[in-house]
Amino acid sequence: MDVATATLTAGLPVSAESSRPVRDATTAPGTPTAPTAPSMPGAAAAPAALVETHTSILIFLGDRVYKVKKSADLGFLDFRTRQARLAACQAEVDLNRRLAPDVYLGVADVQGPDGALCDHMVVMRRLPADRRLSTLVTAGVDVTDELRATARLLAAFHTRCETSAEIADAGSSATLGGLWEEGLRGVEPYLGTVLDGATVDAIGRLAARFLAGREPLLRERQRLGLVRDGHGDLLAGDIYCLEDGPRILDCLEFDQRLRVGDVLGDIGFLAMDLESLGRPDLAAFLLAHYRQYAAESHPRSLADLYIAYRAFVRCKVACTRYAQGVESAAAEARALAALALSHLRQGRVRLVLVGGVPGSGRGALAAGLADAEEWTLLRAEDIGLVHGPGYDLAGTDPTGAEAAGRDAAGRDATDVEAGYDELFRRARVALERGESVVIDAAWERRADRDRAAELARVTAADLVQLRTARGGSGSSAGGGLRWERTPGPVRRMAAASSEHPDPWPEATTLPQGAGPDALLRAARRAAG
């Protein structure tokens, strides 16, 4: 079929105002027609053009765009029949009118020179190319207002998106694991040529490890209705920043499995694309404002997982483009694989044990590490492993219980076990929900450390063990109770324990005498 000829009727471009050739996909009873849009500045004056993608051919004429689906089987889509292309065109119009109702005008029938029906195409209003978000970002234009408006639009959009028990299943660990496995199989033909095998192996291993320990987090996202039929392919090149607000185009219409999912996966696609354009700061800005407008909370590790997944999806697409003869797509695929691996490494869930005797700066270090990395901090003293309500901060014992070897609340050394039970309970809740945890405690008993190692194993968390040495300059840096202010019974128990602590060869002993900043840097390196 000659595309240029087929899109002409009586010498004129087919448009939404033509009578016979146009089939508006929303003219079914009870379905509203797309509203009339204001003219788009610069679009009508733009020259005619023809653009080919791996799935479509787009013809730009005047203030219209005509999009014809390729008759192709790419594995993840099959448009070889006219009926399949018609269904895809109708779905594209229906789905994209959710975010750009004044851009998607309808579906046109394509007639050959003999007047016979031979294909179908999507008819769209033409938007000014210089207002694409990707163009603005690449040019270094300040797009914070545009990103803020985009985040607000997408947050509102997601509240309207369809959800159901079947759709919610797309957010399960089993479904997500299947999608990762499908992606890994999809790039196998390109290992050793386009992609590095070790990189892809690490991607698969880290993605599976995250999912293995986050079942409670994913179930909670499902229960809250955060798994929906969204956009599925949010790219900066498909967002047009107009004076009256953004228009978001090109929703993924050919496979609902790739479109439904956690709303964080949707917004994560755009964050990934902004990063690939060299602007991780804009990606963080977008995620922060989306979180605000959507009034939802999520661990940073989950955002990393979805950004990595979206990068890997685009990596597979780039591999397909390379196979179609686009040589530059190989470098793009490698860059996207590297981006996916970077986020999976960043999103690893960690259980960090910070131990050491009082006076060694342990409390200050644990607090500083948790604050710097935005991790959850749990302290032994906060659950009564250090002092009870009968003691004041000077360590006095107004009740006289010290002589009996108990604190004012009646606790003795046997209560340490119960204290660690509570630390592990709280830590497990956080770890299963994707939050890394720092636990500040003595950790002088191997049995306690073994329990921590088992907790890390069952929650698929990385175990990091750090020990401070007495005499480090961090000991007066604040954070936690100072040794000289610690209650008497605890001082005696800690002193006795520190004289004969269980060996701790697995721990990284942080440099004695280092300043607080150097100590924190060493801890961050060890936990990284």
Automatic annotation (TrEMBL):
Name assigned to this protein: Aminoglycoside phosphotransferase domain-containing protein
Compositionally skewed regions (Low complexity) per UniProt: 25-42
Pfam family, one: AAA_33
Record's compositionally biased regions (Gly residues): 471-481
Residue segments, region Disordered: 14-42, 470-528
SUPFAM superfamilies according to UniProt: P-loop containing nucleoside triphosphate hydrolases, Protein kinase-like (PK-like)
InterPro entries: Cell-binding_unc_protein (IPR052732), Kinase-like_dom_sf (IPR011009), P-loop_NTPase (IPR027417)
